[in-house]
Every structure is written in structure tokens, then in C-alpha cells.
Amino acid sequence: xxxIGVVTFPGTLxxxxxxxxxxxxxxxxxxxxxxxxxxxxxxxxxxxxxxxYGDYLRAGAISSHAPIVREIVDAAAKGLxxxxxxxxxxxxxxxxxxxxxxxxxxxxxFICREQVLVVENADTPWTREYAAxxxxxxxxxxxxxxxxxxxxxxxxxxxxxxxxxxxxxxxPNGSRRNIAGVCNAAGNVxxxxxxxxxxxxxxxxxxxxxxxxxxxxxxxxxxxVLTSLVGAA
Amino acid sequence: MxxxxxxxxxxxxxxDPQGKAVAGSLPxxxxxxxxxxxxxxxxxxxxxxxxxxEHLDAAREAGVQVLSNPVIEDVVAVYADTAAVQA
Lengths: 233, 87
Description:
By secondary structure, chain A is α/β, with parallel strands linked by helices. Chain A has helices at residues 15-24, 67-77, 87-94, 151-159, 219-232; strands at 3-8, 28-33, 44-47, 82-85, 101-103, 111-119, 135-142, 146-148, 163-167, 179-183, 189-192. Chain A has one domain (3-232): 3-Layer(aba) Sandwich (Rossmann fold).
């Protein structure tokens, strides 16, 4: 059974949901504390959403210098699968593991909705149980969700297939090129603004094909990484 | 006590949604002469004694490394706040 670390910063909101998603996927969830320098030998790491350090300075900025993130940066360079969701995505950009940044939504309002995404890259350790081009529905909830990067970086991301998720239809926050999630050059580090960990269990997710709240499209993010670990072992 | 000021602004090519919202509110309050607003951040870094060139250099470095995100922001000014000297 894989062991997946879930990091908690002061102000993290979704660590319990992320840990639950990990367990529902069949792995052991290992709690990691921001001030520790010990990754506890985990096989992969999830940086969950919320408002770490109150989003002071910039979203994810102070967290990116936390002791546990320094360890994650080192381990990611050696291939550790790392997933950043929402605020976790912001932490990964501030830690320079992922390109670009997030600024306030173009319409300036907090947004919470069931969001359809296109899985553009189904080759990362976090997306391999999806089909490329598949449409999935997961919750989206953010204030600072507008993904920005310079045109050169955006072209590079597109050219190298590093846009992992894209908003389908309406762009909910003004993100460049409808980008909802990207990965690093090696593919092991993935960040996305929407929340797959909130769509993992019938009765609590978005509306799905089988009726209200039956959507579990997010679960395969977590089962994907388990499959990847088995494949790598 | 000396004080170094670091001013950080969103990059010109980055849309500044907050500034846009502020710009939208000004005409309603009678400030129709302002046709655009960009909103940035001012940091005040306090040091022991007078501000030295080393302090200014360190403040600029901190500005680039921590106080701003070079993807979306520029450090536009680093200077000693002389009014802070007698404080």
C-alpha cells in the first residue's frame, strides 16, 4: 500500500478532505507538518488548498519557504510525485517547482461552482487513469485563481504538453489560455486550481451521471498516483 | 531607528483587477480626472541606526527574493525613508 503525505500549514483548509481522498483511493495518508523537515518516507505528497499563513504577502508565498516545502523541492527534483491543489498550486509556483503564478480572479469575486475540466495530459503520475481529452467535473472555489505567465512560458507549456487540465467552456477566473493545471518538465509535479479531493465519494461530490452528488471524477487523481507507484516499484 | 521602503507594483503587462475596481469607483466619488489606477504594495523595513548602502542592497535583494514575485510583480523603488529617522 502506498503512503501519501498530506501537508498542513497554518490556515490549510482541505487537508482532511485530501487525506480522506487518499484513503478512499486505497493508500495510507501520512500527515506532514509545515514546520517539520521530515517527509516520513512517503511515496508522494499532496499540498492541499486553503489559506496558508493567511495568504499574507501573496497566496502561497510564505509557505513556499516552510521547512517541509524545502524538503519537497529537493525530493521533487529526484522524482517524488507532488500534487498541489488550489493554495497548494500557489505554493508550488512560489517555490519555483511550477511556472507562472495566480492573481485575483478577473471578476474580483470569490467563486464556487462545479467545474468541467478537460484532462489534456493523461501521462503524469497524477492523471494516468484518465483518457486524454476526457471531461471531468470537480468543484472549483477560489479568489486568487487567475493563472498567469508570460507568452513565452505559455507557448513552452503548450508545446511540451505541460497543460494538464483546462477549463471547459466558460473561463471562471480569467486564466491565460483557460489553464486550470500544469506540470513541471519531468511531469511528476502537478498543480491545479480546482479540487479533485472534493469529488471522490458518492453523496458528497458534484452532480454526476447517476444523479445529484454522485460525481467522483476526482478520485482517479489519487488512484493514478498509486498505479504509478506500483509501476515504478 | 532607520527605515527602508520597498515599493512593489504589478508588472505593466499583468492585468491589475484590484486597480481596475478602484478606478471604477473613483468617478462615482467625483474623481473623474483619474482615468486609470494600478495598486501595489509598500513595505517598510526597519533597521538599527541609520540606513546604509548595505541595508539598501539587502532590501533590494529581499524585495526580489521574497517581497515580490518576479512572475507578476516588479520592485520599482528601494529607498531610505528619511522621515523615519527621528521616530
